[in-house]
Each structure stands twice: as structure tokens, then as C-alpha cells.
Amino acid sequence: PEASALCGKTVIVTAGPTREKIDDVRFLSNYSSGKMGFAIAAEAARRGAKVRLVTGPVNLPTPPGVERIDVESAAGMLAAARPLFDDCDLFIGAAAVADYRPEAPVAGKIKKKDAEMEIRLVRNPDILAGFANGRKPGQVAVGFALETAGGIDYARRKLVDKRLDLVAFNIYDGRTSGFEVDTNALTLLGRDGNVTELPLLSKEKAAAKLLDAVESILPR
Ligand code: PMT
């Protein structure tokens, strides 16, 4: 068979959730398990890519041949990923990065009081958009967009606003697709206007289909 276009390429994959500290014992986060990003990292490595997997806290084994970097917060993910940007052919953002973090995490444990409490949140940096905006010609940027039903227009917005080559739109339905479960239904939106609706697949098969599409846009 013909060698994969990914063979010998350097790939960054982000995966999992981030945790944004409220105090030393509490955080804001989401339901990402890391399964989708880990499946992509595993498949890219199988195709001969040099894979760097930057992941938030998850309970998954490191795929064979993959270099894994564990992080906690969005700021930590950016700090780990940014030094790798220059030497990479492809960035795939499968992480569910928190858009906001508590402005001022409290040292120790916040004490319960007999009153309401407010936590002020500030914006986190966008790791994928940072890569896409600063990249050199030939570097490819792929994102995910998790939306509830009817969200394809939001996914298209992300493709344009973050200046991506490809977006994988997944519908979060709480049962078969999106966070935590072993299956996902992806719709791939290309910068060229191409739309490919994939059926519900295992995250391993969905990762393979996504990488097939990526191979077709990777410079040889
Ligand atoms: O981990 P699993 O349980 O297997 O679930 C997989 C998944 C649903 C988490 C995954 O398939 C997915 O959709 N990941 C993106 C989740 C999301 O909500 O992304 P977003 O719409 O907030 O962000 C869009 C893109 O920008 C993503 O590629 C994201 O990684 C990236 N991003 C977002 C915010 C930020 N601060 N930095 C980023 O890099």
C-alpha cells in the first residue's frame, strides 16, 4: 500500500478536559474523557507520525509510540503546547478546553459562609487559534466543535474565526455522541466548503476517517 501522508510528520494532538482551579481543592471542568483525542493520537502514530499528545486529566493509557505530556489547566496546556508549535506539521485540537477560569484562585480551601457566593471568571487563551494564527505556510490546523443539535452553523463559524483547515463537528446528545461515550458522529467541514457526514462510529473508526480527510489536505 502507498505510504500514509502522515508518515514522518510531526503532529500535536490535544485531548481531554482542563481543570480551572477555584481553590486548592475545587475546580471547574467538563465531561471530556480524552477518548477521542487518544484515538486520534493512536491512529496517527500507527500511520507513522511522530505524535505529541498534550492531555488534560484523564484515565487512559498512553497509546503505543506516542509522546504524552500531562497538563491540568488551559494555561498549562498552552504552556506545554506552544514550544512544540514551530516543529509541527499538523495540530489537531480534540481537547475540551475551558473557555473561562476563576479570576483569582484561592489558596487553601474556601470556607463555607451563610451567604451566596460569586466566582468571577475570566477568558482563557485559545490554544488552537493561537497555533492557527501564528503558523507557517504548510502547517495544518484541525479543530473540533462540540455543539448541541442544530449547531453546524456554529461549527462553520469556528472554522472561519479560528482560521482552520478542517473542523470536526460533533453533536452532543448525552447518549451516543460527544463526551465520555465510546462512539461519535462527526461531520467534517473543510475550508474548501466540503462537507462529509460520517455515521455513528467507534471513536477509533471516527479517528481513522478524520485522519483520512486530513491526509488529503496535508502537503506531501
Ligand atoms: O474526550 P471525549 O470524552 O472522547 O469527548 C470528545 C470531545 C467531545 C471532547 C471532542 O470530540 C471535542 O469535540 N472536542 C472539542 C470540544 C469543544 O467544545 O470545543 P470548543 O467548541 O470549545 O472549541 C473549538 C476548538 O478550539 C476545539 O478544537 C478546541 O480544542 C479548541 N480550543 C477551544 C478553546 C480554547 N481555549 N482552546 C482551544 O484550543
Automatic annotation (TrEMBL):
<keyword id="KW-0288">FMN</keyword>
<dbReference type="GO" id="GO:0004633">
    <property type="term" value="F:phosphopantothenoylcysteine decarboxylase activity"/>
</dbReference>
<keyword id="KW-0436">Ligase</keyword>
<comment type="function">
    <text>Catalyzes two steps in the biosynthesis of coenzyme A. In the first step cysteine is conjugated to 4'-phosphopantothenate to form 4-phosphopantothenoylcysteine, in the latter compound is decarboxylated to form 4'-phosphopantotheine.</text>
</comment>
<feature type="region of interest" description="Phosphopantothenate--cysteine ligase">
    <location>
        <begin position="11"/>
        <end position="220"/>
    </location>
</feature>
<feature type="binding site">
    <location>
        <position position="158"/>
    </location>
    <ligand>
        <name>CTP</name>
    </ligand>
</feature>
<dbReference type="GO" id="GO:0071513">
    <property type="term" value="C:phosphopantothenoylcysteine decarboxylase complex"/>
</dbReference>
<dbReference type="GO" id="GO:0004632">
    <property type="term" value="F:phosphopantothenate--cysteine ligase activity"/>
</dbReference>
<keyword id="KW-0285">Flavoprotein</keyword>
<feature type="binding site">
    <location>
        <position position="99"/>
    </location>
    <ligand>
        <name>CTP</name>
    </ligand>
</feature>
<comment type="similarity">
    <text>In the C-terminal section; belongs to the PPC synthetase family.</text>
</comment>
<dbReference type="GO" id="GO:0046872">
    <property type="term" value="F:metal ion binding"/>
</dbReference>
<comment type="similarity">
    <text>In the N-terminal section; belongs to the HFCD (homo-oligomeric flavin containing Cys decarboxylase) superfamily.</text>
</comment>
<keyword id="KW-0460">Magnesium</keyword>
<comment type="function">
    <text>Catalyzes two sequential steps in the biosynthesis of coenzyme A. In the first step cysteine is conjugated to 4'-phosphopantothenate to form 4-phosphopantothenoylcysteine. In the second step the latter compound is decarboxylated to form 4'-phosphopantotheine.</text>
</comment>
<keyword id="KW-0511">Multifunctional enzyme</keyword>
<dbReference type="GO" id="GO:0010181">
    <property type="term" value="F:FMN binding"/>
</dbReference>
<comment type="pathway">
    <text>Cofactor biosynthesis; coenzyme A biosynthesis; CoA from (R)-pantothenate: step 2/5.</text>
</comment>
<comment type="pathway">
    <text>Cofactor biosynthesis; coenzyme A biosynthesis; CoA from (R)-pantothenate: step 3/5.</text>
</comment>
<protein>
    <recommendedName>
        <fullName>Coenzyme A biosynthesis bifunctional protein CoaBC</fullName>
        <ecNumber>4.1.1.36</ecNumber>
        <ecNumber>6.3.2.5</ecNumber>
    </recommendedName>
</protein>
<feature type="binding site">
    <location>
        <position position="109"/>
    </location>
    <ligand>
        <name>CTP</name>
    </ligand>
</feature>
<dbReference type="GO" id="GO:0015941">
    <property type="term" value="P:pantothenate catabolic process"/>
</dbReference>
<keyword id="KW-0210">Decarboxylase</keyword>
<feature type="binding site">
    <location>
        <position position="144"/>
    </location>
    <ligand>
        <name>CTP</name>
    </ligand>
</feature>
<dbReference type="GO" id="GO:0015937">
    <property type="term" value="P:coenzyme A biosynthetic process"/>
</dbReference>
<feature type="binding site">
    <location>
        <begin position="125"/>
        <end position="128"/>
    </location>
    <ligand>
        <name>CTP</name>
    </ligand>
</feature>
<keyword id="KW-0479">Metal-binding</keyword>
<keyword id="KW-0456">Lyase</keyword>
<feature type="domain" description="DNA/pantothenate metabolism flavoprotein C-terminal">
    <location>
        <begin position="7"/>
        <end position="216"/>
    </location>
</feature>
<feature type="binding site">
    <location>
        <position position="162"/>
    </location>
    <ligand>
        <name>CTP</name>
    </ligand>
</feature>
